[in-house]
Amino acid sequence: MKTAKNIGLIIIGATFLLFSTFVKSQSYTMDFSNPLTYVAQEGCGEINPDHWLVKNETCMVSTPTLTVNGSGGSISVSYVLRVNQSGNLEYDDSLYLQHSVNGGAPIIDTIFHGDGTSAVFTVTKNYSMESGNILVFNIIGTTNAQTEFWQIKKGDFTIENVIINLPTPIEAGEFKVSTVLNYVILDWSTYTETSNDFFTIERSRDLISFEPVITIDGAGNSNELLYYSAVDENPFPGLSYYRLSQTDLDGKHSIISVKQVKTDNNDFSIITDDNSNSVTVLSNYCNLTVKLYDIQGKLIAHSGFESKMFQISNLTHGIYILALNNEKLNEIKKFIIK
User: Fold this and answer.
1) Does the first or last residue of the chain, that is N or C, have fewer Cβ atoms within 10 Å of its Cβ?
2) What gap in Å lies between CA 277 and CA 324, rounded to an integer?
3) Are the C-beta atoms of 78 and 127 separated by less than 8 Å?
């Protein structure tokens, strides 16, 4: 699949993804609806968009690589961590926070022990660090029963004066996503690309398990605005999540963005264009029979079509009636050409 300034419309039989620029800020928040903000131990713990939870196991969740960001010699890096505990944790059920600086050995900051009460523990701490220092924080929880848990909710871990270190060869432009019927329509752009080999598109029902769908060639090296477009003809019904990542020419891989989308449940859509005096029918069904009548009931057009789009042009101004029929659909709709 070739990349160009205007790629046009790319039809994807299984899915596509939503894309946005990750905006650097002077603070970090662990957000379980955004996989860019955490790294979870595979196959361990419960993760959904609202929380990370550990019960009857030992599991770890980490921050991505963080860079101390600020001006001057010594930067104040402070964090706040809130931890929920079930009311039946014993002392041997523990949760601790550790961090490493510039790839060094982990240092334990805080240890929580169960005390048999239902509560929220909160800890705050402040460091003085040099701008440019690299930090990684790990949170490790242990319980020994299914009825016991440690829980960290979305937004319960924040760190000031750091940014997520995302060295990506992509400078992203505007991203737009929309739905028509059960189609997901996506457009995104890049301002620059450096050694960009290809994009990988995955989708998920639950934000935890993603399945690879398709790869799309990158531009390699580019300093001009490039546009990409795609349509997912068969997405998951209802709410789903799409992840876009990038792989450069030496094999390095980075996640660009994760977004959610909700498809419509309608079986068809009627779009009128008063400028061209036309009506377009988009349907979830193939092999649809379309009959077009004027307001007096006179048959103007009668056609069957095997694709999911049908258009009638050069209509005069007035009120019309469309009859749509196949083995699963029997609908009559009125529309106006102004």
Assistant:
1) C
2) 20
3) yes
Torsion sign, CA atoms 122, 123, 126, 127: negative
Q: 309-312 and 268-273: which strand pairing?
A: unpaired
pLDDT in tens, 163-203: 887 555 677 666 677 777 677 777 777 788 888 898 887 88
| Helix ranges, the chain (H) | none
What are the structural domains, with CATH classification, of the chain?
Answer: 11-22+167-262 (2.60.40.770), 27-164 (2.60.120.200), 268-337 (2.60.40.3080)
Q: Is the dihedral of CA 250, 251, 253, 256 positive or negative?
A: positive
- pTM, whole model, 2 decimals? 0.47
Residue count (the chain): 338
Question: Percent of the chain scored above 70 by pLDDT?
Answer: 86
Question: Angle 86-92-93 (CA atoms, 0-180°, nearest 5)?
Answer: 30
